[in-house]
Design brief:
Blueprint: H1 5-12, H2 36-43, H3 46-53, H4 60-70, E1 72-74, E2 90-92, E3 95-97, E4 101-103, H5 116-126, E5 132-134, H6 142-145, E6 154-158, H7 164-176, E7 182-185, H8 194-201, H9 239-248, E8 253-258, H10 261-269, E9 274-277, H11 291-302, E10 308-310, H12 317-325, E11 330-333, H13 335-366, E12 380-382
Helix pairs in contact: 2-13, 5-13, 7-9, 10-11, 12-13
Length: 385
């Protein structure tokens, strides 16, 4: 039971087809993002599924990210407008977007499906030229991904590294590959995936906690902070580092992981071209707020000076509408795109993105919003607890 998709559904408070379904849906039958998830579960090893599905600690923040959408009502318009009248196109830091949706950076896509990052980039480009952000932990080098969709737009994500020379080499690798927009992630401070460690230990051979997947019984006992599951590569980030990165990045520099208004203001002061309100989908630090709850106060602090992107917990077009109404300029989707890729390869990822696009259009039409600027605080009512 613990390893079943039913248990995961309860943990994430998401609907899914259960026992009444006697066969796997075909791609043509897929209706919502949730239809992809059980197929993803059946297609990949448990460790790959768990890496995608789970979050930090007790997973309170992961669950809260989803619950927060239930606390925001969409105010329907009377009369509504036809979907044919809805045009949600915009421009973000020089990138023209038909929909305010971006494929978020997520690690190692080849284990999901052989199409991997190349397939995801092709899918994003085919789905109305959706911007994609490549993870620094990609299973396919940027130089191979970028040419796969010449008309697409590819940005790159990076985790801070204290050594500036190493940072410069990473920026050069991205930019030489034609990946000019850089997202530096600062929200991944102290996460530890307890479920991952349990799977290792219950796999038949005892392993020493904190030493990674290849550690075995008898290996050296971890010392220092590693004994308490703390990652030495994090918890040191400084604004000086952002200042130094700003000099290395030729294109847009975006800071991902902002959850406080003061940090949003500082990001602007230190040269960020945009920020991403994110808690890493509940994978960063447990018992934090949901991103949707803190979004309005960050929007107020930024006051239109730079674009605000948003992620964490999005599963439906209505979720996207709510984030936009509370002030985000665009949203990023991560787990759901992985569901689509793992279920049906590049075709599944494309279909997933297109479903969310059309669900967003339907929500906008129901709320009487013909253009992106019409989606604002008057179109929703929040009841955050």
């Amino acid at each position: 039971m613990a390893a079943s998709p039913v248990a995961a559904a309860i943990a994430q408070i998401d609907p899914r087809p259960l026992s009444e379904h006697r066969r796997v849906l075909s791609l043509a039958e897929i209706q919502t993002s949730f239809d992809f998830e059980p197929i993803f579960f059946g297609n990949v090893p448990l460790s790959v599924y768990d890496y995608t599905a789970h979050g930090d600690g007790s997973e309170f923040t992961l669950r809260r990210n989803r619950l927060a959408y239930d606390w925001v009502d969409i105010m329907s318009a009377h009369p509504a407008i036809p979907t044919s009248q809805v045009d949600l196109s915009s421009e973000l830091l020089g990138v023209k977007m038909k929909f305010p949706i971006i494929v978020a950076p997520t690690a190692a896509m080849v284990p999901l499906n052989p199409d991997g990052e190349i397939g995801m980039f092709k899918a994003a480009t085919a789905a109305s030229n959706t911007l994609m952000i490549l993870s620094i932990n990609t299973s396919t080098p940027a130089a191979q991904v970028r040419p796969a969709a010449p008309d697409g737009t590819l940005w790159g994500q990076f985790y801070p590294v204290e050594n500036r020379a190493t940072t410069q080499r990473a920026m050069d690798t991205y930019q030489n590959a034609g990946v000019n927009g850089i997202i530096v992630t600062v929200d991944q401070q102290a996460s530890y995936y307890e479920r991952t460690q349990q799977d290792r230990n219950f796999g038949g051979r005892a392993r020493t906690a904190g030493l990674g997947a290849n550690a075995r019984s008898g290996d050296a006992t971890p010392t220092g902070a590693a004994r308490y599951r703390l990652n030495g590569g994090r918890l040191w980030y400084t604004w000086q580092y952002i200042d130094d990165m700003r000099k290395m990045v030729k294109g847009p520099l975006v800071i991902k992981g902002i959850l406080e208004p003061d940090d949003a203001r500082l990001a602007i002061e230190h040269g960020a071209d945009a920020i991403i309100v994110s808690n890493h989908g509940g994978r960063s630090m447990d018992y934090g707020p949901s991103t949707l709850e803190v979004l309005p106060e960050i929007v107020a602090a930024v006051n239109g000076r730079i674009p605000i992107l948003f992620d964490s917990g999005i599963r439906r077009g209505a979720d996207i509408f709510k984030a936009l109404a509370l002030g985000a300029n665009a949203v990023m989707i991560g787990r759901t795109t992985r569901w689509g890729l793992a279920a049906f390869g590049a075709a599944g990822a494309q279909r997933l993105i297109e479903i969310l696009q059309q669900e967003l259009v339907q929500a906008a039409a129901a709320a009487g919003c013909a253009k992106l600027s019409d989606i604002n605080r008057t179109t929703v009512k929040a009841h955050f607890v």
